[in-house]
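input
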Amino acid sequence: MEAEMSLLHEPLHEYTFKLPGPPPVLVPAITWCTQVDRELRLRDRPTDATANDPDLGFLKPVGLGSISDNGEYKEWEYQQRWEAQKILPWLSVGPVPAARDKKYLEREGITMMMAIRARPTPLQGVLRVGEELGIRMEAIDTPDHGSLIKAFPHTTQIINRHLADVWQSQAATPSPRLGHVLVFCDGGNDVSPAVVAAYLMEMLDGFDHIAAMQVCQSRRFCINFDETTKNTLRAHWDILQAKRAILGVQSDAGTAASHHGHQTVLPLREGTARHKRHIEEAAQDEDMDMDSGVDADDALRFLGRSNLPFAAT
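output
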Protein backbone atom coordinates (compact mmCIF):
# COMPACT_ATOMS: atom_id res chain seq x y z
CA MET A 1 0.00 0.00 0.00
CA GLU A 2 2.81 2.39 0.91
CA ALA A 3 4.55 1.56 -2.39
CA GLU A 4 1.39 2.40 -4.31
CA MET A 5 1.01 5.70 -2.46
CA SER A 6 4.62 6.64 -3.21
CA LEU A 7 4.05 6.01 -6.90
CA LEU A 8 1.06 8.32 -6.85
CA HIS A 9 3.17 11.16 -5.49
CA GLU A 10 6.05 10.73 -7.97
CA PRO A 11 6.17 13.53 -10.57
CA LEU A 12 5.42 12.46 -14.12
CA HIS A 13 7.72 15.04 -15.71
CA GLU A 14 10.76 16.88 -14.47
CA TYR A 15 10.45 20.63 -14.08
CA THR A 16 12.86 22.55 -16.29
CA PHE A 17 13.79 26.20 -16.70
CA LYS A 18 14.72 25.70 -20.36
CA LEU A 19 12.83 27.86 -22.83
CA PRO A 20 10.57 25.94 -25.22
CA GLY A 21 12.02 25.41 -28.66
CA PRO A 22 10.45 25.02 -32.09
CA PRO A 23 8.95 21.65 -32.97
CA PRO A 24 11.26 19.24 -34.80
CA VAL A 25 11.24 19.35 -38.60
CA LEU A 26 10.63 15.83 -39.91
CA VAL A 27 12.17 15.02 -43.28
CA PRO A 28 10.85 11.63 -44.42
CA ALA A 29 12.95 9.40 -46.61
CA ILE A 30 12.45 9.92 -50.32
CA THR A 31 10.85 6.47 -50.69
CA TRP A 32 8.11 7.51 -48.23
CA CYS A 33 7.37 10.73 -50.04
CA THR A 34 4.02 10.95 -51.80
CA GLN A 35 5.62 12.94 -54.62
CA VAL A 36 8.27 10.42 -55.69
CA ASP A 37 7.44 10.70 -59.40
CA ARG A 38 7.14 14.48 -59.39
CA GLU A 39 9.16 16.19 -62.11
CA LEU A 40 11.66 18.91 -61.28
CA ARG A 41 10.71 22.15 -63.06
CA LEU A 42 12.37 25.54 -63.01
CA ARG A 43 10.39 28.60 -61.96
CA ASP A 44 9.78 31.24 -64.60
CA ARG A 45 11.77 33.76 -62.60
CA PRO A 46 13.63 33.62 -59.26
CA THR A 47 11.92 35.43 -56.40
CA ASP A 48 14.78 37.87 -55.73
CA ALA A 49 15.52 38.52 -59.40
CA THR A 50 15.85 42.16 -60.48
CA ALA A 51 15.97 43.91 -63.80
CA ASN A 52 19.78 43.71 -63.74
CA ASP A 53 19.87 39.95 -63.21
CA PRO A 54 20.75 37.80 -66.23
CA ASP A 55 18.21 35.89 -68.27
CA LEU A 56 18.25 32.20 -67.34
CA GLY A 57 16.18 31.00 -70.27
CA PHE A 58 19.05 28.77 -71.43
CA LEU A 59 18.39 26.52 -68.41
CA LYS A 60 14.81 25.75 -69.45
CA PRO A 61 15.62 23.02 -72.04
CA VAL A 62 17.82 21.13 -69.56
CA GLY A 63 16.12 17.95 -68.37
CA LEU A 64 16.08 17.76 -64.56
CA GLY A 65 14.37 14.39 -64.10
CA SER A 66 12.13 13.58 -61.15
CA ILE A 67 12.51 14.15 -57.44
CA SER A 68 13.87 10.61 -56.92
CA ASP A 69 15.91 10.36 -60.14
CA ASN A 70 19.48 9.48 -59.20
CA GLY A 71 21.76 6.91 -60.80
CA GLU A 72 23.75 6.34 -57.60
CA TYR A 73 20.70 6.19 -55.31
CA LYS A 74 20.85 2.46 -54.50
CA GLU A 75 24.62 2.00 -54.35
CA TRP A 76 26.02 4.27 -51.69
CA GLU A 77 29.38 3.42 -50.15
CA TYR A 78 31.11 5.02 -47.20
CA GLN A 79 34.01 6.45 -49.22
CA GLN A 80 31.56 8.44 -51.32
CA ARG A 81 31.24 10.89 -48.43
CA TRP A 82 34.65 12.24 -49.50
CA GLU A 83 33.42 12.76 -53.06
CA ALA A 84 30.97 15.29 -54.50
CA GLN A 85 27.50 14.45 -55.79
CA LYS A 86 25.52 16.19 -58.51
CA ILE A 87 22.21 17.71 -57.36
CA LEU A 88 21.30 19.47 -60.62
CA PRO A 89 23.06 19.22 -64.00
CA TRP A 90 24.89 22.46 -63.18
CA LEU A 91 25.20 22.19 -59.38
CA SER A 92 27.08 19.74 -57.13
CA VAL A 93 27.78 19.56 -53.40
CA GLY A 94 30.66 17.95 -51.55
CA PRO A 95 33.50 18.25 -49.02
CA VAL A 96 36.90 19.97 -49.22
CA PRO A 97 38.71 16.86 -50.58
CA ALA A 98 36.46 16.93 -53.66
CA ALA A 99 37.45 20.57 -54.29
CA ARG A 100 41.10 19.48 -54.31
CA ASP A 101 40.52 16.50 -56.63
CA LYS A 102 41.94 17.70 -59.93
CA LYS A 103 40.73 14.66 -61.89
CA TYR A 104 37.17 15.09 -60.63
CA LEU A 105 37.13 18.81 -61.41
CA GLU A 106 38.35 18.19 -64.97
CA ARG A 107 36.02 15.25 -65.55
CA GLU A 108 32.89 17.08 -64.37
CA GLY A 109 33.79 20.37 -66.04
CA ILE A 110 33.63 22.45 -62.84
CA THR A 111 33.76 26.14 -63.73
CA MET A 112 33.29 27.65 -60.25
CA MET A 113 33.85 26.49 -56.68
CA MET A 114 32.01 28.12 -53.79
CA ALA A 115 33.38 27.57 -50.29
CA ILE A 116 30.94 27.93 -47.38
CA ARG A 117 33.08 28.56 -44.30
CA ALA A 118 32.09 28.74 -40.65
CA ARG A 119 35.35 30.61 -40.08
CA PRO A 120 37.89 32.12 -42.53
CA THR A 121 40.07 29.03 -42.87
CA PRO A 122 42.84 29.00 -45.51
CA LEU A 123 42.15 27.09 -48.72
CA GLN A 124 45.61 27.00 -50.28
CA GLY A 125 45.20 23.55 -51.81
CA VAL A 126 41.84 24.40 -53.33
CA LEU A 127 43.08 27.76 -54.59
CA ARG A 128 46.14 26.19 -56.19
CA VAL A 129 44.08 23.60 -58.07
CA GLY A 130 41.56 26.25 -59.07
CA GLU A 131 44.25 28.49 -60.52
CA GLU A 132 45.75 25.59 -62.49
CA LEU A 133 42.39 24.73 -64.06
CA GLY A 134 41.12 28.31 -64.43
CA ILE A 135 38.20 27.75 -62.08
CA ARG A 136 36.53 30.75 -60.47
CA MET A 137 36.61 30.81 -56.67
CA GLU A 138 34.06 32.25 -54.23
CA ALA A 139 34.14 32.12 -50.42
CA ILE A 140 31.08 32.82 -48.26
CA ASP A 141 31.67 33.18 -44.51
CA THR A 142 28.74 32.05 -42.35
CA PRO A 143 29.86 31.96 -38.68
CA ASP A 144 26.30 31.32 -37.46
CA HIS A 145 22.87 30.39 -38.79
CA GLY A 146 21.76 34.02 -38.79
CA SER A 147 24.46 34.87 -41.32
CA LEU A 148 23.66 31.67 -43.21
CA ILE A 149 20.03 32.61 -43.91
CA LYS A 150 21.16 36.11 -44.93
CA ALA A 151 23.61 34.55 -47.42
CA PHE A 152 21.01 32.41 -49.22
CA PRO A 153 19.82 35.07 -51.71
CA HIS A 154 23.43 36.16 -52.31
CA THR A 155 24.70 32.65 -53.07
CA THR A 156 21.81 32.02 -55.45
CA GLN A 157 22.61 35.23 -57.37
CA ILE A 158 26.31 34.34 -57.56
CA ILE A 159 25.54 30.90 -58.99
CA ASN A 160 23.06 32.21 -61.57
CA ARG A 161 25.28 35.06 -62.71
CA HIS A 162 28.20 32.69 -63.18
CA LEU A 163 26.05 30.30 -65.22
CA ALA A 164 24.91 33.19 -67.41
CA ASP A 165 28.49 34.43 -67.89
CA VAL A 166 29.69 30.97 -68.94
CA TRP A 167 26.79 30.60 -71.37
CA GLN A 168 27.34 34.02 -72.92
CA SER A 169 31.06 33.38 -73.33
CA GLN A 170 30.24 30.26 -75.39
CA ALA A 171 27.26 31.67 -77.27
CA ALA A 172 29.26 31.93 -80.50
CA THR A 173 30.39 28.28 -80.38
CA PRO A 174 28.43 25.55 -82.18
CA SER A 175 27.59 23.68 -78.96
CA PRO A 176 27.81 25.86 -75.85
CA ARG A 177 28.10 24.05 -72.53
CA LEU A 178 26.57 24.84 -69.19
CA GLY A 179 28.70 26.02 -66.33
CA HIS A 180 29.06 23.71 -63.36
CA VAL A 181 29.27 24.97 -59.77
CA LEU A 182 30.64 22.96 -56.85
CA VAL A 183 29.42 24.15 -53.43
CA PHE A 184 31.57 22.70 -50.66
CA CYS A 185 32.35 22.97 -46.94
CA ASP A 186 34.59 21.01 -44.56
CA GLY A 187 32.57 17.79 -44.52
CA GLY A 188 29.96 18.60 -47.13
CA ASN A 189 27.19 17.44 -44.82
CA ASP A 190 25.52 20.53 -43.35
CA VAL A 191 26.12 24.15 -44.40
CA SER A 192 26.99 23.60 -48.07
CA PRO A 193 23.94 21.31 -48.57
CA ALA A 194 21.86 24.01 -46.84
CA VAL A 195 23.00 26.54 -49.48
CA VAL A 196 22.10 24.05 -52.23
CA ALA A 197 18.70 23.33 -50.63
CA ALA A 198 18.00 27.08 -50.49
CA TYR A 199 18.92 27.29 -54.19
CA LEU A 200 16.43 24.52 -55.01
CA MET A 201 13.68 26.29 -53.05
CA GLU A 202 14.40 29.48 -54.98
CA MET A 203 14.75 28.00 -58.47
CA LEU A 204 12.39 25.02 -58.64
CA ASP A 205 8.65 25.31 -59.02
CA GLY A 206 6.68 24.43 -55.88
CA PHE A 207 9.63 23.13 -53.85
CA ASP A 208 9.43 23.79 -50.13
CA HIS A 209 12.15 23.17 -47.55
CA ILE A 210 11.12 19.53 -47.03
CA ALA A 211 11.33 18.61 -50.72
CA ALA A 212 14.62 20.48 -51.11
CA MET A 213 16.22 18.61 -48.21
CA GLN A 214 14.85 15.32 -49.54
CA VAL A 215 16.45 15.88 -52.94
CA CYS A 216 19.82 16.74 -51.38
CA GLN A 217 19.76 13.72 -49.06
CA SER A 218 18.71 11.35 -51.85
CA ARG A 219 21.77 12.39 -53.88
CA ARG A 220 24.23 12.52 -50.98
CA PHE A 221 23.30 10.03 -48.25
CA CYS A 222 25.71 11.37 -45.62
CA ILE A 223 24.04 14.79 -45.44
CA ASN A 224 22.91 15.45 -41.88
CA PHE A 225 20.82 18.58 -41.37
CA ASP A 226 20.66 19.40 -37.67
CA GLU A 227 17.49 20.90 -36.20
CA THR A 228 18.85 24.46 -36.31
CA THR A 229 19.65 24.14 -40.02
CA LYS A 230 16.22 22.61 -40.70
CA ASN A 231 14.49 25.49 -38.95
CA THR A 232 16.72 27.94 -40.84
CA LEU A 233 15.59 26.44 -44.14
CA ARG A 234 11.96 26.49 -42.97
CA ALA A 235 12.31 30.18 -42.10
CA HIS A 236 13.83 30.82 -45.53
CA TRP A 237 10.85 29.10 -47.15
CA ASP A 238 8.48 31.34 -45.18
CA ILE A 239 10.43 34.38 -46.40
CA LEU A 240 10.22 33.19 -50.01
CA GLN A 241 6.46 32.67 -49.70
CA ALA A 242 6.01 36.16 -48.28
CA LYS A 243 8.08 37.71 -51.08
CA ARG A 244 6.14 35.83 -53.73
CA ALA A 245 2.85 36.91 -52.19
CA ILE A 246 3.98 40.54 -52.32
CA LEU A 247 5.16 40.16 -55.91
CA GLY A 248 1.80 38.65 -56.81
CA VAL A 249 -0.06 41.62 -55.29
CA GLN A 250 2.23 44.06 -57.09
CA SER A 251 1.72 42.19 -60.35
CA ASP A 252 -2.06 42.38 -59.94
CA ALA A 253 -1.83 46.09 -59.14
CA GLY A 254 0.32 46.64 -62.23
CA THR A 255 -2.21 44.82 -64.37
CA ALA A 256 -5.00 47.00 -63.00
CA ALA A 257 -2.92 50.11 -63.63
CA SER A 258 -2.39 49.16 -67.27
CA HIS A 259 -6.17 49.16 -67.73
CA HIS A 260 -6.50 52.65 -66.23
CA GLY A 261 -3.99 54.64 -68.21
CA HIS A 262 -0.98 53.39 -66.17
CA GLN A 263 -2.48 54.85 -63.01
CA THR A 264 -2.89 52.54 -60.05
CA VAL A 265 -6.50 52.42 -58.91
CA LEU A 266 -7.22 50.78 -55.57
CA PRO A 267 -10.76 49.51 -54.89
CA LEU A 268 -12.37 51.54 -52.11
CA ARG A 269 -15.81 51.20 -50.65
CA GLU A 270 -18.01 54.22 -51.00
CA GLY A 271 -17.78 56.54 -48.04
CA THR A 272 -14.64 54.97 -46.50
CA ALA A 273 -12.22 57.71 -47.51
CA ARG A 274 -11.35 60.07 -44.69
CA HIS A 275 -9.13 63.11 -44.45
CA LYS A 276 -6.54 63.88 -41.84
CA ARG A 277 -8.16 65.63 -38.89
CA HIS A 278 -7.01 69.06 -37.80
CA ILE A 279 -6.35 69.95 -34.19
CA GLU A 280 -9.56 71.99 -34.06
CA GLU A 281 -11.62 68.91 -34.96
CA ALA A 282 -9.93 66.88 -32.25
CA ALA A 283 -10.66 69.60 -29.67
CA GLN A 284 -14.33 69.60 -30.65
CA ASP A 285 -14.49 65.84 -30.12
CA GLU A 286 -13.30 66.26 -26.51
CA ASP A 287 -16.25 68.59 -25.78
CA MET A 288 -18.83 66.37 -27.48
CA ASP A 289 -21.78 65.27 -25.38
CA MET A 290 -21.70 61.44 -25.35
CA ASP A 291 -25.52 61.34 -24.93
CA SER A 292 -26.11 63.33 -28.10
CA GLY A 293 -25.00 60.73 -30.63
CA VAL A 294 -22.19 58.53 -31.98
CA ASP A 295 -18.54 59.53 -31.95
CA ALA A 296 -17.27 60.66 -35.37
CA ASP A 297 -14.43 58.14 -35.36
CA ASP A 298 -16.80 55.30 -34.54
CA ALA A 299 -19.18 56.43 -37.28
CA LEU A 300 -16.44 56.27 -39.90
CA ARG A 301 -14.93 53.05 -38.63
CA PHE A 302 -18.25 51.21 -38.57
CA LEU A 303 -19.71 52.79 -41.70
CA GLY A 304 -21.46 50.18 -43.80
CA ARG A 305 -21.84 47.74 -40.90
CA SER A 306 -25.12 46.78 -39.34
CA ASN A 307 -23.84 46.70 -35.75
CA LEU A 308 -22.59 49.86 -34.05
CA PRO A 309 -20.88 49.63 -30.66
CA PHE A 310 -22.60 52.78 -29.33
CA ALA A 311 -25.87 54.01 -30.75
CA ALA A 312 -28.31 56.65 -29.55
CA THR A 313 -31.56 55.23 -28.20
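quick obs: The mean pLDDT is 79.
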